[in-house]
């Protein structure tokens, strides 16, 4: 693999700037007038527009996927074939989390039922956490990519090449997914039935 350091540094800076400006829509800004499936898919594509342009051919969501989520109980059913704010908020959370978790894990994180207030609270918390996590991620990429970005202050964990950055990022994604899954599986567990906490 051959990477141009200046190109990679420029792309990292551009993506950093984009991520720091990007925000999921606030609850009140999500339409609540009842949208048809095709309109929902288009809206979600607009809301979740942080995918690299090279990957935009791949749809973040499809009508078939939405129907499947409703059928499997991941999402409240539409009202007369129309989707409202609570549906769209759930779909935003699903599409975002689907990048790193499987649907059975995501279902455990979503509010159960159709109570709009519960969904609103979960969504507002999710939006805030998304914003904070994006900032944290940008900070970690700055540290890891310090050599590529020509930062004077580098740490031992800083990578030397783009290949190392790709590998490290993939490893962090794997560790993050494992941790998220382990924590989800501890729901409703206690010290007595949650397995060993011994450190050897």
Give a written overview of the molecule.
The protein has 200 residues and is mainly α. It has one domain (5-184). Helices cover 55% and strands 0% of the residues. It has seven helices and no strands. The protein has helices at 5-21, 37-47, 63-71, 85-97, 103-109, 116-144, 162-184. Helix 1 packs antiparallel against helix 6 (116-144) and helix 4 (85-97) packs parallel to helix 6 (116-144). The radius of gyration is 20 Å and the shape is globular. The model has no long low-confidence stretch (mean pLDDT 91).
Spell out the blueprint of helices and strands:
Layout: H1 5-21, H2 37-47, H3 63-71, H4 85-97, H5 103-109, H6 116-144, H7 162-184
Helix pairs in contact: 1-6, 4-6
What is the radius of gyration computed over CA atoms, rounded to a whole number of angstroms? 20 Å
Question: What is the number of strand segments?
Answer: 0
What portion of residues belong to β-strands?
A: under 5%
- Overall number of domains: 1
Major sheet attributes: none
* Uncertain ranges: none
List keywords for this structure.
mainly alpha; 200 residues; globular
Tell me briefly what this model is.
The radius of gyration is 20 Å and the shape is globular. The chain has 7 helices and no strands.
């Amino acid at each position: 693999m051959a990477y141009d350091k200046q190109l990679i540094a420029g792309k990292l800076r551009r993506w950093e700037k984009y991520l720091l400006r990007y925000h999921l829509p606030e609850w009140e800004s999500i339409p609540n007038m009842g949208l048809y499936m095709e309109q929902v898919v288009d809206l979600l594509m607009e809301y979740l527009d942080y995918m690299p342009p090279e990957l935009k051919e791949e749809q973040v969501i499809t009508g078939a996927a939405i129907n499947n989520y409703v059928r499997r109980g991941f999402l409240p059913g539409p009202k007369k074939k129309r989707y409202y704010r609570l549906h769209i908020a759930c779909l935003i959370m699903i599409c975002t989390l689907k990048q790193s978790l499987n649907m059975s894990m995501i279902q455990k994180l979503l509010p159960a039922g159709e109570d709009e207030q519960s969904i609103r609270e979960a969504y507002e918390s999710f939006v805030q956490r998304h914003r904070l996590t994006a900032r944290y991620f940008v900070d970690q990429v700055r540290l890891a990519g310090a050599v590529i970005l020509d930062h004077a202050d580098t740490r031992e964990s800083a990578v030397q090449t783009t290949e190392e950055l790709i590998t490290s990022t993939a490893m962090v994604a794997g560790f993050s997914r494992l941790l998220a899954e382990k924590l989800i599986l501890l729901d409703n567990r206690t010290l007595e039935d949650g397995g060993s906490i011994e450190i050897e």
